[in-house]
Each structure stands twice: as structure tokens, then as C-alpha cells.
Amino acid sequence: MEIRQLRYFVGVVEAGSFTKAAGFLNVAQSALSLHVRQLEEGFGTQLLIRDRTGVSVTASGAKLLERARAILKEIRLTEVELTNTAASPAGEVTIGIPSGAARVLSGPLLETVRNELPKVSLKMVEGMTGPLEEWMAAGRFNLAVLYRTADSVGRMTVLAREDLCLVVPSGEPPFEDAISLADLRAFPLAVPMRNNNVRRSVADVVAQHGCALDVRFEVDSLSTIINMVVEGKAHSILAPSAVQKEASQGLVRTVKIVDPVITRSVVLAVNPKDERSAAVSAVRKLIPKVARELIEIRDWAAVAPEAT
Fold first, then answer.
1. What domains appear along the chain, each with residue ranges and CATH number?
2. Alpha-carbon gap, residue 283 to 113, rounded angstroms
3. Does residue 200 register a pLDDT over 90?
């Protein structure tokens, strides 16, 4: 059995006929038939059923198809790893990003990767922070943008620091530019679920200062929370970046929370097993650059970390 025979077999099955596969693979139809017949002779079983409409797999053919696809995928990954260098990184990189940060970071990041790393395919998964933390721990991502309090950053790269604010329906109180933490209890809130990092950060500060919040709705969807505020059904506590678009359109207002200020860090985490990947390293270096540029041109209402 040869690797090219597996490629031809998979190609014939996916094309549905020897004639179509010959065109796709740029191989003579007679050569394809010969290689598939040699596979069948080698395994001692029929792999394909041939009729006037094309081909279909037998039970044995289905098993080989599954294994052949897996083998060919591993070969492609090996080729990428062995030819992938820091000078010309290539391959697929998957990043998880919270819905709030995605609203300001995802578009510019995708565009920058496309322009500066043309051989890298960036796959982005957006979600609430609770599931993202779990998926990152399970190794689903190469990289992840996460939220942390100032004292829990560890070895992760700080991209930005954001002060949380009260998000208010347009035309409703409070009308001041700032509100104390103790006064938040007067406003009905729609907030993320308890496993959300923003929710935990706020809850910790509230508990430390003996305050109380009027949490009416627990929603694990940023878009739903924002819509509820726009419709005047609730207020919320979010980072300004999560509602920059709506605030600029006059649909909501942001009121800074003080006494105390609640600050969180936006950080970049890397899967330890991917630290030596040239493609992952290249994207990892680009992200802080994109974040700093967004902050400098005020497309991200945050504070950049001090340069080191």
C-alpha cells in the first residue's frame, strides 16, 4: 500500500466516480482504476461498488476511507510542521475570544493576520468567558483572549486594562458621569451567568465592600444583555468596549463606576503544547501590537499596559 493509492482512493470516493476523480486529480482514469484494484487485491476484499451511476463504498471501503482520511491529514500536518519556520510561518491557528473583546479586536486582528501572515489561517471562536475558559483548559484553542483581575494575570500577556461601567438605557437615570458602587443597588441589572469572569470580578468587589446588587436577569449572551438595555428593560455592568457601537449611536450610555473603580485585565493565554509552533508564535506576537494600535487611535476604550 502506498500513500498515493490512499489519496487516489479517497479522491475517487469523494468525487463519486473514476471519471470525475481523474479530472480532479489530473490522473488517467485507467491509472486510478489500477491503483484501487491493487488496494483491493492487497487487502483481499472489495472496497468499491462500481455501477453506471458511479461508485459507492462497501463496509470495508468505509473503514478504509475513515483511516485513509486520518492518515492523509496527519501527513499534511507533518509537512506543515516540518516546513513551517519562523521566517515564513504557515498553518492553522485557533483562538478563543470573549464576545466583548471581539467587538473591537476580531475584525482588525483577522485583517492584520491576513496581510502580515498570508500563510496562516486564523480560526476565531467567539463566546462568553465561562465556556472559553473551559475550552482553553481542554486544549481546544492554541490561543485565547481572557479576562483577569490585576492580581491573577500570572505569565499571561496583558493586552489592555478596562474599567467596568454601568450601562444605562438612553434617557434613563443615572444622569451623572460617575456612580458609586454602593449606589448600583438602585438599578435592575441584566448580567452574565455566575461562571462569567466579569460577574465574578464584580461580585468579589461588591462582597468586599458590603454592598448589594439588584440582579434581575442572568443571561449568558452579550447581545441579549445589550438588547435588554437598549429596550429599557434593565441596566448592566460591562466594559465600555462591549457597547462602544451602541453608545456612539446614542442607544445606551456608560457611567463610570467609582468608590471603588472595578478594573480588569484583558490577557492573552497560549496553550503550553503550542508554544513552539511558529504559526502560533507569530500570531501571538501580532495580537499585542493590534491591541495597542486600537487603544492609541481610541477604537478601544481601554488603557494599554506599560511598555517593557
1. 3-83 (1.10.10.10), 91-144+154-159+268-296 (3.40.190.10), 165-261 (3.40.190.10)
2. 7
3. no
